[in-house]
Predict the structure.
Amino acid sequence: MAVHLCPARPCAFLDMLLLTLLPMLSSVLITEEEAALLAKAAQDIICFSRTFEDLTCFWDEPAHVERQQRFFYTYKGDRSRECSPILVKHSASGQRHVCIFPSDHHGIQLFRELCVEVLDTASNRTTHSQKLSVDAVGLIAPPTNVTAVWSGLARELQVTWVPPPISYIEFLAYEVLYRAEGTGERPSRMEVKCSPACQLRDLLPGQRYHIQVRTKPDGLSFDGLWGPWSQVVLAETPHLPGEIGLHCFTPDLHQLHCQWDWSPTEPDASQSHLYWAEDNSNKKRTQVWQKCEEEEKVKLLAYPYSHVCTFQPSNSSYISVLVTVTQDQQEVNYLEEPFELHHVVLTAPPRILQSTVNRGTIKLEWASPLEKLAEHLVYQIQYAPQDTLKLKTLQVQYSNNTEIHLANVGCYCFQLRTQPDGQMFRGRWSAWSEAVCIEIPPGADSIILNVAVPLLLCVGLVLGLGCTCLSIYSSVKQKLWPPIPDLHRVLDGFLEDNGKQQQQMNAFFCNKTLEDVPLTCLLEVLSGVPLETPNYGPLQDTISMQQAEWNSQPSSHQHYMVLNPCRPQGGHNEIEYFDGTDDGYDSLPLSLEHDPSILSDPKTELSSFALFGTPLSAHETKEERKWEASGDQSTSATHISNQSYLLMG
């Protein structure tokens, strides 16, 4: 009995010890955060490595499933080996089987394919299987000693950490998660490779940030999943200088004056200090901060808590100014971003030297507040009549005098201020100078203007009344005595209308087609020897009789005459007249013989005639011809002087 009881006691003790240590062992084997990250893989058997020198595989099953299972792993080209799984209860309705590989050459091999499978003992059947590689299932622990401090530049924080204790830290990548406290904005992320530090830029000023870091293989030589996040660290960015009215300026390009306003709640436990630093670049972190020892309070009634500090920096570097306020054991920083000395110029106001008045024009002369900047300053002049608020502003560049033309007389007050032009030197407007009031006396021009304006108004009024009266008189006169019509104009219009109607009627009755219009030509006969021929009175009768005969002929016949002085017949010259008809070419000439009895009158008028089918109109122009007959009748020939005849067929 005793022999039976002795071995039974250790077994019961071991069982109770295992039940006590299983929860602790499960937390060491797999954390809940790791299990949640690995659950995204959606695989039957999930394996991971924390350092690439270890390997852990697990699978989950419902709590009601009770069966004996065995776990085997096999590297490609090697024999199969078995790993004894550990059963862990991970939830109220499930159980987890965990297998930890031995840390030897047979258990951990990088860059080789590994096949894992779960075998059901009762049925000798594979229930789960998976292929993987140890170098591709990294789940690295988060870095440690994460710190976040202000980097020395506005809106930036510097974050550093210690990599996890593994042998392959050069193959790790990091992700930094940061978000501003109390802003409701989504967190921002930044990935960093092969470096245990980073700079967070473009942050909100005066905000407290929550910062975390996690690790993952870089995906080149090793790969895996993002590991769990590190613990949260807090860091605050510097506040804007405007919150305490911090501003710096130089009045002479040598000294720098910085002023700020701060009201402590507990004077004994609160204090503020100003620090400044120089650097050759506005993007590098300033290394050395120097405390301003010449700090003093400006006791003014309007600004009882104003502070001023003056120091002399270099002219060829960037300057950063930091005011640190300690209150309630908390330190708050206010930073002025890096700037150059010649970009914060604020000079004294200019001083008016002389003012002259000439006929409503004021000439002002003033002195530059800083001779080094005389060629780089612009000025503003504001003026207004005394005891009024209607200010006018005039801007003058690169000059110390100007002329202002004023239309009204009276007393005017002037003020000046200046600032750099913004090219080589920059800065702000200075304060306004003291007001200078100048009296503008009335001149001759003003008197003439004062007299001329009323006179012009009176003349305009008189002219306007006169034009109005004339217009009214004209309209009344037209209504009472209407104008008599102009008889000559009426008669001319009547005759003109009558002439137009007569022309239209003539055009209507004389309208002919193109075939009925007689063709006209001008015949000119030239005589070589002018002879005096007697007047042939009966010849006109003969021509008239022949013309009557021609009128009876058709209009389509062509009529022409042949004048041949070289053919004497019976002692008289003949004029042959040919009548072209449709009978052919047998037309005979008709002789027009001269009668001696018609030569008695030496000069008679011979009317020009036209040979055509219709009689000549009465309105056609008649041409007078004169003939002279020679005394020698035997040798005289019929010569027609240079005449023109109109032949119409």
